[in-house]
Amino acid sequence: MRHITTTLAALFWLSLAASANADMLVGVAAPLSGPSAILGKQIEAGSGLAAEAQGITVNTVDDACTADGGAAAARQFVDAKVSVVVGFLCTEAIEAALPILKDANIPVVTIGVRTESLTDRRAKTGWPVYRLGPRGDDERNAVATILTRLWQNDLFAIVDDGTIYGREVAETFRTAAEQAALKPVFVDTFRPQLDNQIGLIGRLKKAGATKVFAGGDGDDIAIMGRDAAQLDVGITFAGGETLRTPTGDVPYAVGTLMIALPEWAEIADPKVVQAFGERKIVTDGYTLPAFAAVEVAKAAKADAESSGKSLAEALTGHDFATAIGTIRFDEKGDLSQNPFRAFRFDGTHFVPLEEK
Question: How far is it, in rounded angstroms, from Cα 355 to Cα 33?
């Protein structure tokens, strides 16, 4: 009789838990039309599978990556009484949506908007936004931090292709190096998209550089590595996340360093990756971050209900275990740790760099 009673009690509590989960409605904002629709479909797929796994419901709305679309989506979420919104890839859409969602006390977990002011203006706007992804300055700050540490005992050079991107990341590294009492042996701007960079390699060799950061496209860095090898100049090249793009006819030189985000499928929970595979869903782009955002939303709501905190308070300064690792937001709503990491090309693909 006790066994039956215990079983009934367990079923009762499981029923209550299932009911609580079913009552949770998460809004999903994604561009499901227009040129960014392919990315929006990734968010839709990832959040949908997470909702199924977590036993909750999602309300997916097309924000069209526009201000009008973002505002319209926000109003739909308010009418639907969602607990939290995840998604958003475009600055225009989220900035139009946030004032509406703020008034309704609905926090937002964005997985793709890098605009720094989104969280930097938090004290002024009061927007309840949390960024499950990098800030716009995370890449260049990671380049500066990682390479300053790695190359503190090396003769290094810094070159860029003259673009805004190239100059910003190169200048951030140069400034950080100088603050660490390190000085590059060579600083210059190179001409991009040339068939060869032999002239640049010659100048680097003359300066004695053995390590070079190049702010530019992957194709240019691949050509630099090839030309350095042909001239028997022992130089290791490094670049940013532009190296994630496959090169043309020239492969990267073995040992080339890349500062970039991880490939989420390579670090994610294998069981979750398997679940995507069983549904024939490719784990590209935003699928796994969208999955993780829903996990965060559910965990934060459970914490808020058990502790009496607001959902915004539950989202701030707490560790959330997700399929792509532990997520923690700081007081501004940014990730507490820069997500960019160092990788080394092994001749086939980029692998995590094991620092000594």
Answer: 43
Gap between the Cα atoms of 253 and 235, Å rounded? 10
Give me 268's structure tokens. 């994610």
Say if residues 127 and 161 touch (Cβ distance below 8 Å).
no
* Alpha helices (H) in 55-181, listed in sequence order: 67-80, 91-103, 117-120, 122-125, 138-150, 164-179
- Specify the DSSP element, H or E, that contains 278: helix 270-278
Q: Which residues contact 24 (CB under 8 A, 6 or more apart)?
A: 56, 57, 83, 297, 298, 301
- Span 137-176, pLDDT tens digits: 999 999 999 999 999 999 999 999 999 999 999 999 999 9
Task: Dump strand ranges (E) for the chain.
Answer: 25-30, 57-62, 84-87, 108-110, 129-131, 156-160, 186-189, 211-215, 236-239, 257-260, 319-322, 325-328, 341-345, 350-352
Model confidence over 9-40: pLDDT tens digits? Answer: 333 333 333 434 447 999 999 999 999 999 99
Residue type, 74: A
Helix (H) or strand (E) holding 296: helix 287-307
Q: What does the DSSP assignment read for 109-130?
A: EESS---THHHHTHHHH---EE
pLDDT, mean of residues 87-99 = 98
Q: Which of 197, 200, 218, 219 is nearest to 158 (CA)?
A: 200
By the 8 A CB rule, do 53 and 21 touch? Answer: no
- Closest of 237, 171, 179 to residue 204, by C-alpha: 237
The amino acid occupying position 271 is K
